[in-house]
Amino acid sequence: SLGASLHIPDQATLTAPGGLAAWFATVRPTAAHMTPPLGQLLTAGKAPALPDLRYVFWGGDVLRRSLVDTVTAIAPEVESVNFYGATETPQAAAFYRVPRQGDGEERLPIGRSTDGFEVETEEDGAIIIRSSFLTLGPVLEGRLPPPAPPSVQTYDTGDLGERRADGAVMIRGRRDDQVKIRGYRVEMAEVTAAALRAPYVAQA
To answer: What is the CA radius of gyration of the chain?
Structure first.
């Protein structure tokens, strides 16, 4: 709608050594949406200069200051914005515009709520999202959930955090053993169960 073009690298580009960096140098995007692991792929080895890159929108995993600084070294005009969401919410329930100068904290905040969302921390540290834009439920046997009038729903993310003095929310961990691998949520119990189904495995 704004006259821009959308470019998406294929899987072969992502898995080839140096492939993502070469792709960025050829396409020369002005804005990029990436997970932190993709950022590590981009900056691995001798990364090319990216003078055209103006914004990187991060999401899907914990964002660290060291990665932002590494990207800024090859893209001096870039501004990093950390997005926070969950599978059950749109991508950006909260956002944090990363300042140029760090405050000594390696792990970066998820920031403040975007319009239409409330990202809150409970007394026990639980991070919850309140919004009328949460998912209506899972697709079961190919059927969508029945439509319902808009209403504010609450979603417990499973993340633990705290609100800083400046109002930004900082994630400190999780209440369960879920991990993120390349931006995808993985239940470690499912990995254990799969290992136990393998022949000759007695314990996992």
So the answer is: 19
